[in-house]
Structure formats: C-alpha cells, structure tokens
Amino acid sequence: MRIGLISDTHDRLPAIAELIKRMQAGGVGMVLHCGDYCAPFSLGPFHDIQMTLMGVFGRNDGDPQGLRAFAAQGIGTELFESPHSFDIAGNQVLVVHDLVDVSPSSIERHGIVVHGHTHQPEMKTRGDTLLINPGEACGWLNGAPTAAILDLESRDVEIVRLEGKEWTY
User: Fold this and answer.
1) How far apart are CA 49 and CA 127, in angstroms?
2) What is the pTM of this model?
3) For the chain, is the Cβ count within 10 Å smaller at the N or the C terminus?
4) Strand, helix or coil at 98?
5) How far is CA 15 from its chain centroid?
6) Cα-atom radius of gyration of the chain, to the nearest Å?
7) What's the helix, strand, coil split of the chain in %, to 5?
8) Quick one: pLDDT at residue 75?
9) Any residues with CB less than 8 A from the CB of 156 and at least 6 apart, and which?
10) CATH code assigned to 2-161
11) For residues 30 and 86, what is the distance between their CA atoms, to the nearest angstrom?
12) Buried-exposed string 10-31: b where 16+ CB fall within 10 A, e elsewhere
C-alpha cells in the first residue's frame, strides 16, 4: 500500500492540487497531512480529487472549527489534534506537526512517525522507527513545494518535488 505524506500547505492551492495529482498518479489512495493547512479552503483540492485525507492540526491553523466543518463536507476526510496515533495496514503510525510535541518513548512505540513544521524534507531512522518529514507543500520558504510517497510494505520513501519557474520563489 502506498500513502501520500504532506505538510505545511499554507493555503497554496495550485501546489496542493498538483502534489495530490502526482501522488495519485504514483498509486496513492490516502494522504496523511501533518498540519498547517491554514484556511479551511486549503482542503478543497482533496475534495475535488476525492482523495482520502487524515491529518492533524498545526500551529498556523487559526480556524480549527472551520477546518473541521470543511472536512465534514467531503467523504474520507478526518482531522485530529496533534499528535494522533493509528494503525494502517498493520503499521503503527504517529502523525504530528512538530516532533518536539512528543516524547522519545512515544516515537519508539511507533513503526512510522510522520511530521512537518520544519519545512525541510527528511527521512531517518531511530531504532526501528522510520521518521519522515515530507517538507513544505507550499514552497514558500525553501523554493519548491514538496510532498512524499511512502510504500508501507517496503518502507521506501519518494520525495515529490514541483520544479519549474511556476513553483519557485
């Protein structure tokens, strides 16, 4: 099973839509979002493409009630407080906006930890735990929008990067 990973979308609708399309083309049927959607309309591309979304809130989500209401308009969209732990295809997954919000023992109890906040794509292991930051989907700070695709069986991670003048700053 392949899942999409995205974070820090910060209202950049064209980048969100394009990243979701590329993840869908890469065999993704579900996306995990690590927060900082910002405004509720940032969920629109997920609804438009009918992509299942599970996500947590970040520090720049100023209207959580609005985000929850917008999420409820779509099928398969669920938003939780950060951090949120769940099982997907036999993998214990923790989704959190900022890693400093969870203890090292909580990280160790999960096979996969997906986080955002730093706006930098990163993959590393801590013991048996795979930690993944898909970077920033907005591209505002580092010049290019990024997301990631995770193969849950092989634990391979592919960074999806939007390149070209229309995406860079």
Assistant:
1) 37
2) 0.96
3) C
4) coil
5) 13
6) 14
7) 25, 35, 45
8) 82
9) 150
10) 3.60.21.10
11) 14
12) bbbeebbebbbebbeeeebebb
